[in-house]
Amino acid sequence: MKDGTVRRRRTRMAGALLSALALLTAATGCGGAAESAESTKSTKETAASANRLEPLADPEKPQLPVTVGSSDGKKVTVRAADRIVPLSGSLSEIVFTLGLGDRVVARDITATFDQAEKLPVVTRNHDVSAESVLSLRPDLVLAETTTGPDEAMEQIRDAGIPVLVVDPAQGLEDVGPRIQAVADALGVPADGKRLTQRSEDRIAAVRKEIPAREEHPRVAFLYLRGSASVYLIGGKGSGATSLLEAAGTVDAGAESGLEKDFTAITTEALAQAAPDAILVMTKGLESVGGIDGLVKIPGVAQTPAGMERRVVSIEDGVLLNYGPRTDQVLTSIVKQLYGDGS
After folding, report:
1. d(C-alpha 239, C-alpha 321), whole Å
2. Is the pLDDT of residue 292 over 50?
3. pLDDT range class, residue 214, cuts 50, 70, 90
């Protein structure tokens, strides 16, 4: 698998899942009382329905038209937002959590949360189908810089559809800017600030509860697709480093010197990384036959993680999203790693 294909899958998957979340809120404006009530909800309470989103209370009505900057260097004027097509799971989560999910008319294959379940899919193997998108008559398409193929995106633009491009997420610092970019384009900038604050507060609350340890566990992020014989270990730029560090661990792949986003798994690479635990996506783990199959991959059984069968599994569609559910992702990683904190 080429690096570009892996990167495209990673940034959409997520989608990201990845991602995670039961957040504490702070509020501004007329929604302050409702948001203050939301902020008292614990991560455990909202995590009970892990694959459902928690929209903002009393969402704004979009104030349009607006003109905003796009990550592809263009200016995009949004005159209506009644029929929205987000082309990644992460962007879909943001729109729904802003309380505008009733305006979404299609989904990317990585939008796996419950509220999007019945929407038509407009991607094929993570590639956009321009024909499928245009058949739904959208008035706004949300994409990431990795969304493609380029020909499909140009076809959508040539049809006169506004396309807002957002930089893909790489870490926790991207949560707020991505939320705000989408909120600004939808004409709800104040709600963007509300959701950003809620998300950041909840992530901070999770981090405060992480058990203090003298030595930080080393965790390797493995990208697995057994059906295609794809077995990769994440390095710098895989997207997992920020999440692992927030969970009080060391990204074993990045720390061992792996410079590429992903590197083919070898016995030598795993020995160098020496992970105490392995982070995988749920479908990836299933694709190799669960933990029994995972430890049969050359080199895995010889690592501390393999010997202890210590594996952290997060649903594909949210793990690397770095969006409104990131706190839930972080909570799950922490619980699987540390259990009751002992």
Report:
1. 9
2. yes
3. confident
Q: Which residues of 68-85 are buried (b: 16+ CB within 10 A; e: fewer)?
A: bebeeeeebebeebebbb
Mean pLDDT of 170-177: 95
Closest CA to 11 of 104, 87, 123, 116: 87
Q: Do the beta carbons of residue 76 and residue 163 sit within 8 Å? A: yes
Q: For the chain, what is the mean pLDDT?
A: 86
By C-alpha distance, which of 249, 269, 253 is closest to 261? 253
**Alpha carbons 178 and 63: distance in angstroms, whole number:** 19
Instruction: State residue 111's pLDDT score.
Output: 92
Rounded Cα–Cα distance for residues 274 and 270 (Å)? 6
Mean predicted confidence (pLDDT) in 1-29: 35
The closest of 98, 97, 165, 96 to 107, measured between CA atoms, is 96
H helical segments located in the chain: 3-12, 32-39, 43-46, 89-95, 130-135, 150-158, 175-185, 189-208, 241-246, 252-255, 267-273, 282-287, 290-294, 304-308, 326-338
Mean of the pLDDT values across residues 330-338?
94
Q: Which residue would you say has higher pLDDT here, 126 or 152?
A: 152
Helix (H, G, I), strand (E, B) or coil at 208: helix
Mode of pairing for the β-strands spanning 163-166 and 218-225: unpaired
**CB distance 223 to 6 below 8 Å:** yes
210's CB contacts (< 8 A; 6+ apart) are 247, 248, 334, 338
